[in-house]
Write a structure and sequence with these properties.
4 copies of one chain form a homotetramer. With 210 residues, chain A is an all-alpha fold. In chain A, helix 1 crosses helix 6. Chain A starts with a helix and ends in a 9-residue tail after the last helix. At the A-B interface, helix 6, helix 8 and helix 10 of A face helix 6, helix 8 and helix 10 of B. Chain D binds a DNA duplex (21 and 21 nucleotides) through helix 1 and helix 3.
Chain lengths: 210, 210, 210, 210
DNA sequence: TATGAATGAGGCTTCATTCAT
DNA sequence: AATGAATGAAGCCTCATTCAT
């Protein structure tokens, strides 16, 4: 006979189990997206990678697109939170850029896939990317404006400053096989990118510490 | 009865005809790739756009990939030649950048499609992009080094200088719906990009003319 | 610790509970069958309508067909009983027809679904329909023969008499959206059908009262 | 070398071939619909019955529904034409009824399936049935009114007269396994139905010849 | 060479049924 | 007895490629 408590516990176990399966699916999908590209990833492959029956996928994500959106949102939220955390301490532009690279480093593969395919993906995918970039943009803008006040950053339109950095990073991500064959490009080239970029946007005055 | 000569002539006619059909197919394919994306373009749509039977396509390009490669190579060669032509006159960095944008402007749609999808396309696609970038790189490097000699361009590693520019341009191309909705982004934003970039890489000295 | 008595009580409670659940399922299923058609009704929808977990259904009806058969038999028995009750009082043909329509009126939706889909349903479905029609047939035959004796009904083979009535009623049921859009067709058209049918089978002599 | 004429001939051959395949599909589908019911017929079964690859079906009928509609329209047109032809000669009600049965006899199986499932079929299916019934209705109404003028048919609303006949015939079709096991019910019972129905609607005066 | 009908492997999705809790 | 997550067979449809004409 089930006591109320046991019902609750059992209910909890069930939801936990379901949530765990959902996580497994998300992880498998993200990994396959990173590996083979988003559009080229078959739902059957995701199921197999997750160790589930094909049909089980559709219990959790009735349409393939919903899975993609869930992966992206999951990823976007995580990345934004990470960016906030990482940027929280540092006040300088350098700290921001390094936080950005640190945040991306952990999800390099998937982020690169997203970047590359966003154009042909559902609205939600693009919105999620935009959200990430807005978050980043906010931190960079603040740091850059402070730098301009302080005289360490050359005065210039902030959006161009931002797009130059984003473009540079994305270019390296999109061509990561070229810039760091068989390795993580941000690991290998990140320092170089930060230095170069700071060199470009700084005044000669080396006052800044971040 | 066919004389030897008529065979030759007919053969020639045939080759001409075949070459013409091939061109038609390439043009149609490129246009569709630009419009809908490469992966999303169906062979049947290409045939229809070219005014040919579906099967005829496979007479000229037995595998879909061969068509794609042909389009890309054709495009790459054309663009490189154009970049050479456009860069020939101007010696300064500004001239190089403007030549780059001018060259891209004519093929913006397809180039953007190539950029965004290259990661999941056959080797040839990436090679072709590389070839284009090498060509450009050669011109930019020359101009940049001259500028550094002359003291108008700040001293810095040329490959980073180059990748910064490429990254900036590609970022705008990849997000052209965002930066110039319903319009050609290089037309609308090109000038701004050149000015900003030159501002970044220049010394304060405004000696240069290009 | 369970005493023997408590086991019995609990066992009884359980059976009661089980029977109650079974009733709930039957009611929900019948309602959905009537609403959307039998073949188009999903087992999951029945469970949801009954406020039960999907799996619980299969505890009571291991195969979907068993549920269907149970619904049909339940329905058939109920309808036959009702027809008997309704016919009990009236002795004339008119009373029979009106009792028939009255009996059907209460279950119009499901009866129409059964009619339209019986051909592709298990044997039991057809048998159940037959049973209903036999019941009706018995009453009508009795009334008709009495009418023929009395000279109010034209002499003719009883089975044809009966099938003409059944065919007429079923035709209106099968096309109830056409004959009474958004309403109950027997409510709207029943009177007309009875009058017309009686007109057809009667002699001119208007002696009868029912 | 293809002359213009040969092209035309070849073109003709091709269209003939395509039309022939289409016919094969329609025939196979109609036969399976009649045999197993419309909703229960799988596209793969139709393809197999037609001796074609599964995919070929979708070349001719991109959606399953389009195949169904084509079968129904094909059938409806044929039946209406047949009704017109058959009714053309005879002027009496008897001739009309017999023409109706004759027309149906050839397509009994499919017509019965259509009747039974029309309620859950796409709009087009119901429209097609309506069209057939309208055609029939027109002929019957004309004959019935003439009969009423002539005093051979009892005066009564024509739509009820018509629906009584339709209901009777449909009832026999829907239960053809019951009324004529393993045989064509209209063949076996048609005469009886006509006589009975005429008996019901006629005045006693046996003047009429049709 | 050109045509376009035919092919069939492969993808997504549904849903009755099972099973661990 | 009840739950609901998981299963997997089966259905529909797409599209690159082949082939007879």
């Amino acid at each position: 006979m089930l006591t109320e408590q046991s019902v609750i516990i059992q209910g909890t176990k069930r939801s936990q189990q379901k949530a765990a399966t959902r996580e497994t699916i998300l992880r498998s999908a993200r990994s396959l997206y990173a590996e083979r590209g988003i559009a080229a990833t078959r739902s059957a492959a995701v199921a197999q990678a997750a160790g589930l029956a094909h049909g089980t996928l559709f219990l959790h994500f009735p349409r393939q697109e919903e899975l993609l959106v869930a992966v992206i949102e999951d990823f976007g939220e995580g990345l934004c939170r990470r960016l906030h955390e990482l940027s929280a301490g540092g006040r300088g532009l350098r700290a921001c850029l390094e936080a950005h690279l640190a945040g991306l480093r952990e999800v390099e593969g998937f982020y690169a896939a997203l970047l590359t395919e966003a154009g042909h993906l559902p609205e939600a995918a693009r919105l999620s990317l935009l959200m990430v970039q807005s978050t980043l943009s906010w931190h960079i803008a603040a740091a850059a404006e402070a730098g301009m006040e302080a005289g360490t950053i050359r005065r210039q339109p902030v959006h161009l400053l931002f797009n130059t950095w984003i473009g540079l990073v994305h270019h390296y991500l999109a061509n990561r096989e070229l810039f760091a064959p068989g390795a993580l490009v941000l690991e290998r080239r990140g320092g170089e990118l930060v230095e170069h970029y700071l060199g470009l946007v700084s005044t000669g005055d080396r006052i800044e510490g971040g």
